[in-house]
C-alpha cells in the first residue's frame, strides 16, 4: 500500500484572512481562513482521502475500518494537525490536562506543539505567566495588569515549541505554523485584549475554567526540549519530541532517500517540493504513510511528520 493523500479542511477565524490560502496553495479556500486541518478525525470534520482505493473515505472511516493502515486498534485517533497563519493575535488560552478533561467527558487532556515554518524578525508568542499562585493571579486580573502578568517568547523559523496542558499561551501575528495538538478539541479562552466584533460585543471568555486548569509550574514555561538528529542518505532527520501524546519528526531532504518506519506517519510538506514514490508533492500536501511502508522520497523539501 502506497501513501494516501488527504484534502485539508478550512477553518474560519476572526484572526485569519488569506495567508493560509496563499502560502499553502489552497486556492479553493474562502477568505477568512485562519487554519487548515491537515489531519482530523473529529466527527463532522474529518479529512477526505483523495487516493484509490479509499478515495472519498474519511480519515475517521479509515481509522475505524482499516486499522491495517495504522496498527493501533481500540485506540482513539490521537491528534489534530493544523497549518496556521494568524494575521492578528490569537486570544490567550489554556488547555485542560487529563484530570480536567475527564471531568468534561473527554478521554485525554490536550498537550500541543508548534513548529515555526516562518516567523518575522522579532516575532513572539505568549508563553506562560508570572503569577505565583491563584491569589497572585487574581490580583493581576483585578488590576488589569496584563502586561505584567503575561510572558512572551521570541520565535524564529525552524523553532519548535512544546505547550503542555495547563500552560497559558497564544500565537501572535507574524508567523506560519505547523501545529500538533491532542484530539481533545476543547480550549478555554483566558483573555482576548477586549476586542469587539462588528456588533460591539467582546468574545466570550472561559475565565473560571481556564483558571481551574492553569499551571504555576515555572519549569513548564521554559520550553526545554531534547531533540534527536540523525543523518539520512541525502538529508537529516530531527525528532523534536517523543512522549505519550505524540512523536513529531522533521525530514530535511536534499535528494533521494529511502524511508521506512514501522509506525504510521501523518506527513505534511512545509517547504520545497519533490516526489514520494514518484508522485509529485509540494508545500501544503498532506499524506498518510501507512505502518510498515517502504517509500522513496526525492527532491529538496522539508516534511513534518506526526505519529503516536
TrEMBL record:
Q: What class of enzyme is it?
A: isomerase
Which cofactor(s) are needed, names only? Zn(2+)
Quote the record's binding site residues for Zn(2+): 95, 112, 169
Which GO terms of the molecular function aspect are on file? mannose-6-phosphate isomerase activity; zinc ion binding
Identify which residues the record assigns to the active site. 189
Details of cofactor binding:
Binds 1 zinc ion per subunit.
Gene label: manA
Q: Which PANTHER family match?
A: FRUCTOKINASE (PTHR42742:SF3), TRANSCRIPTIONAL REPRESSOR MPRA (PTHR42742)
Tell me where in this chain the Phosphomannose isomerase type I catalytic domain is found: 14-111
User: What's the superkingdom here?
Assistant: Bacteria
Keyword terms, alphabetized = Isomerase, Metal-binding, Zinc
The protein's name: Mannose-6-phosphate isomerase, class I
Is Isomerase set as a keyword in this record? yes
One biological process term in Gene Ontology: carbohydrate metabolic process
Under Enzyme Commission nomenclature, its number is 5.3.1.8
Lineage runs: Bacteria, Bacillati, Bacillota, Erysipelotrichia, Erysipelotrichales
Amino acid at each position: 500500500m502506497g501513501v494516501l493523500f488527504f484534502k485539508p479542511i478550512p477553518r474560519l477565524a476572526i484572526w485569519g484572512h488569506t495567508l493560509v490560502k496563499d502560502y499553502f496553495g489552497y486556492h479553493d479556500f474562502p477568505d477568512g481562513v485562519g487554519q487548515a486541518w491537515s489531519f482530523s478525525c473529529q466527527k463532522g470534520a474529518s479529512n477526505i482521502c483523495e487516493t484509490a482505493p479509499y478515495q472519498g473515505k474519511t480519515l475517521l472511516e479509515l481509522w475505524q475500518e482499516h486499522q491495517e493502515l495504522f496498527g493501533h486498534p481500540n485506540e482513539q485517533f490521537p491528534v489534530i494537525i493544523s497549518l496556521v497563519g494568524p494575521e492578528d493575535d490569537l486570544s490567550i488560552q489554556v488547555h485542560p490536562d487529563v484530570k480536567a478533561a475527564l471531568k468534561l467527558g473527554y478521554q485525554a487532556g490536550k498537550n500541543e506543539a508548534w513548529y515555526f515554518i516562518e516567523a518575522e524578525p522579532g516575532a513572539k508568542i505568549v508563553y506562560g505567566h508570572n503569577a505565583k499562585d491563584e491569589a497572585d493571579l487574581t490580583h493581576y486580573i483585578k488590576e488589569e495588569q496584563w502586561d505584567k502578568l503575561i510572558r512572551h517568547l521570541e520565535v524564529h523559523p525552524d523553532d519548535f515549541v512544546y505547550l503542555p496542558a495547563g500552560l497559558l499561551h497564544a500565537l501572535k501575528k507574524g508567523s506560519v505554523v505547523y501545529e500538533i495538538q491532542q484530539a481533545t478539541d476543547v480550549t478555554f479562552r483566558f483573555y482576548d485584549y477586549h476586542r469587539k466584533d462588528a456588533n460591539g460585543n467582546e468574545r466570550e471568555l472561559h475565565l473560571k475554567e481556564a483558571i481551574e486548569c492553569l499551571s504555576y509550574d515555572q519549569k513548564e514555561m521554559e520550553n526545554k526540549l531534547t531533540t534527536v538528529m540523525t543523518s539520512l542518505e541525502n538529508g537529516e532527520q530531527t525528532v523534536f519530541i517523543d512522549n505519550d501524546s505524540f512523536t513529531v519528526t522533521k525530514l530535511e531532504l536534499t535528494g533521494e532517500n529511502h524511508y521506512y518506519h514501522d509506525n504510521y506517519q501523518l506527513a505534511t510538506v512545509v517547504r520545497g517540493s519533490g516526489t514520494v514514490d514518484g508522485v509529485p508533492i509540494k508545500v501544503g500536501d498532506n499524506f498518510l504513510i501507512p505502518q510498515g511502508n517502504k517509500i522513496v522520497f526525492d527532491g529538496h523539501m522539508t516534511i513534518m511528520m506526526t505519529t503516536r
